[in-house]
Amino acid sequence: MIGGRGGALIGLGVAGLILCLTLGTLAAVAWRAEAASGLGPADWAALRFTLLQAALSATVSAALAVPVARAFARRRFRGRGVLIALLGAPFILPVIVAVLGLLAVFGRSGLMNDALRALGLPEVSIYGLQGVLVAHVFLNLPLATRLVLQGWAAIPAERFRLAASLGLGPAEVGRFLERPMLRAVLPGAWVAVFVLCLTSFAVALTLGGGPAATTLELAIYQAFRFDFDLSRAALLAAVQFALCLAAAGLAAGVARPAGLGAGLDRPVDRRDAGSPWLRVQDGAVIAAASLFLLLPLAMVLLRGVPQLGALPGPVWEAAARSVAVALASTLLCVALALPLAIAAVDLRRGGRWLEAAGMLGLATSPLVLGTGLFVLLRPLVRPADLALPVTVLVNAVMALPFVLRALLPALRDLRAGYGRLAESLGLAGMARLRLLTLPRLRAPLGFGAGLAAALSMGDLGVIALFADQRTETLPLQLYRLMGAYRMDAAAGAAVLLLGLSLGLFRAFDRGGRGHAGP
Amino acid sequence: MRHFLIAAGLLSAGIAAAQDAPVLTVYTYDSFVSEWGPGPKVEAAFEAICTCDLRFVATGDGAELLSRLRLEGAATEADIVLGLDSNLTAAAAATGLFAPHALGMRDYDLPVVWDDPMFVPYDWGYFAFVHDKARLPDPPASFEALAASDVSIIIQDPRASTPGLGLLLWVKAAYPDRAAGIWEGLADNIVTVTPGWSESYGLFLQGEADMVLSYTTSPAYHLIAEGDDSKAAASFTEGHYLQIEVAGAIASTDVPDLADRFLAFMVSEEFQKVIPQTNWMYPAVTPPGGLPAGFDTLITPARALIYPPGEAARIRIEALTEWQTALSR
């Protein structure tokens, strides 16, 4: 037991809170509904498309993440840390900014088609399923890569030294070290991307090119907005939950602990990867991934940076408010994630369930969560008075799955590697947390906290239902600028948002890096 | 959490008690209250004469506004709901939450007669396809010409956006019997469908399509605010669908007189003169000074199309199915 009985109780409490916020809000919406209704043919079509695009997006993202993460794991070069951080940026972009950036590269008058026209080649249309995939891979490859990279970093340096002293080449290292690690890490990464794509709707619709690209989340939105059919909204949201749980269950069945043991945190020396051919191969992979992920970002920057100086005052105020919200929800998120992760690792039987509970935040439709909270809280208090606390809480719960994903593999390794030693020393409770768990979790905690902060910066979440003039956040301001024709100023606000999100991510992530060596 | 809720509740009760001036709560859509919308100017102008505290509460757009109202029911805090459009008034009236207004019959500067007993119009506009004159010098002049051409357009989803719904009704009003055929013809012109107006307009400005679904007044923004006269709206021979934005008072309001005063203020010069250059729509009552320079360059549709409120709600479902079938192929 890493956390002891007290820790398990706190973990259960956290899981209960998440259940209230996710399934509880869903129940509140269903309870408020006036009449029961079923799913129509359009809903089934939406379900099919949602599953198809999410499964494809997750598979492509996870498959591409392996070579990219391996290249980064094998190579050390100047600016590597900065590049890895930058490559994470698409994941935390507000959807509309990401779409505009992508279209500046792949759109009808984007760089790619300009180049094709110049060469006299036929144009390529991004709109359709291919566009949905390109966008979802663009948004989620960073996350998948980071999760897999964490797996590589968790292989102890001693194993690579042993491999080198045994004269193992790249193929054997792959078989004995990397493949077991991937078996442990990849299913989780796949599920994370799959579930994220389940709840996508603006990206899917805009790049999907029309109503054939309707997802469940859009159907939920329609049920709320135009039809005011709360029971249909609740039903669709329940379907979304079920899909998420099924995917998580599937992944848990496929994943196996890597069983590579613990090490002494010595610098990793990859003698197996020294051949020139592998260097070229890794270099090409890193270059291709950087081009794909950074070019759209560069287009966003190019457009927005000149506008930064002219941003109106309210945008800066909203930015300050967003940073405060992000910091508060990061703190809350880590405070929730740590006991939950510890309890999930400690409790053999219930552990999987706790893990699944933590993942529920991902499957939650922000609309259902917001509306449910609204229905529950409104009899007690004016919604606008709670806008910021509610945003902090919801952002924390929404970011929780990512922090959990980062913490769980590390905690499992920790128990396998140090559990017996700690128990034989009688190291328990707070002392164990302070002396063993927290120091060993520094890197994943920093990474997770960085993600939570960045996600919370960019998330519109539920603020729209609760906000008034005094509680606008930066993403909301960005949308308001766009709604007022001010696309240039919005581009400036997007750069500000991007800079602040990345800055927060980098600050936490760096703070967490405690590994020795270059 | 519970203690926190109680504390927050007490705090807000304390704030409310501390202010003597009556509070008028106006629910409206997001872009109305933004720094660049009419909200701030309207608030200052009304508070100067009402000895009251005007508070805006904003949610999404017109359709979300109505959803929120239905969610809250009779317990709503709203005294006024501002920002529904004429396609939503039938559903709004059916909630039974609205009270008749006290303004009587008035002459509004609308292309159609307005005599609704509950809802008062504050601005209006025509939906239109906006294009760049340099890139598309000869825009199509009808839906049929558009469908026959290879001109690309970006539209909004009628399931998620008010202008998107407007286009749906526009096509249906222009071609009651063969709307489905028109949509099939338009299918290969449509580059993509976005959830909202902002995404569409952003994509259009970035060059993703020749035309975008917006308003006849959109070029006025570029002309007046940016000094850019490159944008124009294409005039369609079938006529253009009208959007009339309205407000109504909530029957259960505790400040009925103040609510009536606000509605009267809304159609007065002080409010109306703010509209053209903040909401970029036509004011329901043209201010004595006339419209701002630049509005005279806008197209004037030969025919205004609009369904009566009750009919719009009924036709929406049928038209939506036609739209979805034609575009999902």
Molecular structure report:
The complex is a heterodimer of chains A (518) and B (329). Chain A has 21 helices and no strands. Chain A has 518 residues and is mainly alpha-helical. Chain A folds into two domains: 1-36 and 314-518, MetI-like (MetI-like fold, Orthogonal Bundle); 43-155 and 168-214 and 272-302, Orthogonal Bundle (MetI-like fold). Chain A is globular and about 65 Å long. The model of chain A has no long low-confidence stretch (mean pLDDT 82). With 329 residues, chain B is of the alpha/beta class. The termini of chain B are far apart. Chain B is built from 13 helices and twelve strands. Chain B is 40% helix and 20% strand. Chain B folds into two domains: 2-124 and 243-295, D-Maltodextrin-Binding Protein, domain 2 (3-Layer(aba) Sandwich); 125-241 and 301-328, 3-Layer(aba) Sandwich (D-Maltodextrin-Binding Protein, domain 2). Chain B has helices at 2-18, 30-33, 39-50, 62-72, 89-94, 143-148, 162-174, 179-186, 197-205, 218-226, 256-266, 269-272, 309-328; strands at 23-28, 53-58, 80-85, 98-99, 120-132, 153-156, 190-194, 211-215, 231-234, 240-250, 282-283, 304-305. In chain B, strands 1, 2, 3, 4, 5, 6, 7, 8, 9, 10, 11 and 12 form a twelve-stranded mixed sheet that branches.
